[in-house]
Amino acid sequence: MSELEIPDIQLTDNTSQRLPCVLVLDGSGSMDGKPIKALNEGLKVLEQELKNDDTAAQRVRLSVLRMGDDDEVEVVTDWTDAVDFEAPTIEANGRTPMGKAMSMALERIEDQKEALRENSTPYNRPWIFLITDGEPTEYDWEETAQECREAENDNKVTIFAIGTEEANFDILEKFSSLKPVKLDGLKFKELFVWLSKSTSSASQAAQDSEVQLEAVDWGSVPT
Amino acid sequence: MTDKKNWIYGGVSVTGFSHEEENIPCQDAHALTCNKNNTFVGAVCDGAGSARLSHFGSKVFAEAVVDALINYPEDRIFPEEAYIRSNIISAISSAQEKLLLEYPEVELTTGENKSRRPSTIRDFHSTLVAAIANERGGAFIHVGDGVGTAFSSNNLMACVVSKPANGGYAEQTYFVTESNWEEHLRIKPFYQYCDTILLMSDGVQGMAMSKGHNHPFEKFVSPLLSFIRDNEREKNEVAVRNTLSKEIVRRSTPDDKTLVWAMR
Lengths: 223, 264
Description:
Chain A has 223 residues and is α/β, with parallel strands linked by helices. Chain A has helices at 34-52, 54-59, 98-118, 141-153, 169-172, 188-203; strands at residues 19-26, 60-68, 72-81, 127-132, 158-163, 181-183, 219-220. Chain A has a single domain, classed as Rossmann fold (3-Layer(aba) Sandwich), CATH 3.40.50. In chain A, 35% of the residues lie in helices and 20% in strands. In chain A, β2 (60-68) and β3 (72-81) form a beta hairpin. Chain A is globular and about 65 Å long. Chain B has one domain: PPM-type phosphatase domain (Phosphatase 2c, domain 1), CATH 3.60.40. In chain B, the strands form three sheets. A five-stranded antiparallel sheet of chain B has the order 1-12-11-8-9. A five-stranded antiparallel sheet of chain B has the order 2-3-6-7-10, with helices on one face. In chain B, strands 4-5 form a two-stranded antiparallel ribbon. Chain B is globular. The chains are: A alpha/beta (223), B alpha+beta (264). The A-B interface holds A 1-17, 54-55, 58, 119-125, 155, 202, 204-211 and B 18, 46, 48-51, 125, 127, 144-145, 166, 168-173, 175, 202, 205-207, 209-214, 217, 219-220, 223-224, 227, 234-235, 238-240, 242-243, 246, 248-255.
């Protein structure tokens, strides 16, 4: 009887939950050269890692925002399931409208939640990843930083802030209740492998479970 | 319409892939029985991953709920929501006390060091979805996620469904061990003729139910019921266990999986 199974049964997940995740990426002029190249290579690694992970491919839902140009925020990837995600190429020029970008990320998260609810699709608490080599270049970023922390306190989102060595960590700290992490060198590939594994774990989180994140091997918390 | 045909029933709780890999016991549990009056009672409990003793909690709560309902007085209105509610509240309260008496301590492991601390009711966090049914109708009893559904096997769309409630995000839910759990206790009576009852934990609901949990998913449920109808309980339980343990299920969920069925 050990080989006995129900014949012809379809074992698919019809109500698959989603983990909405927004990447807010720095495409300012200071990222030009090796940093932007490393970031773009990292995004390709992210695409492969997500697609190689059956659960993440089905459950993680991504949108990518680029901050740059004349304090502009561009949606370079609209909401897409990881299985269909194609790594965008981020260009480096212009400024870093971090407040505007984070405000847009919060807005897009709430819109996506509404769309998922309307579609009867359950979802995990969404994530925003802010990745930068600098600091905000607009004057009213503090207001948005406050909104970000309030959104976290209200359980609406989890925000991760990551900076290269040149980033202003005193400012990054204001966008999240979690400590910002300093990227070692240009370990974008390692960062995105970690991101893929972590979103996979988070998207499988069962009820009342704490999400166990992978150990960070690409950066450290500045003291 | 009344129908006194006997129930064919059974159930399995299968350890999830992630728990198997981490050597964690199955935190789902179920209990089920049928009395001489042909009233079926079943319960599925899903222990929380974060609660250290939830595998004990889920088992004790499932058994307590079945014990509380199986002696439903034959001369009483059926299903009477107020009666069911008060019986369940009393059964869960007693089960909570029993758990704290039987498992007074939790073992903690930090590196190579082991220590103990007194247990609290949060260590037994568990959801509940249960059903009582006979020829007069039935009721679902529900706290948190999981699904209960009752239907006629010739029309899956005309079903009664007790849907999961998790209070927002998929990683959250309600437990019978929370201080305000009675606020989240849902009793859903039904009076229509149903020849099939299914109870399932959240590890199964994505496969056995349609999107939005609006009705049973035909391509899962029809082959399942055809098999169950033609076979004995032991064989049914082996086949369902093997099916829910298949590698392909890993894509749907790494979670523990429980399915309880009753057909007539």
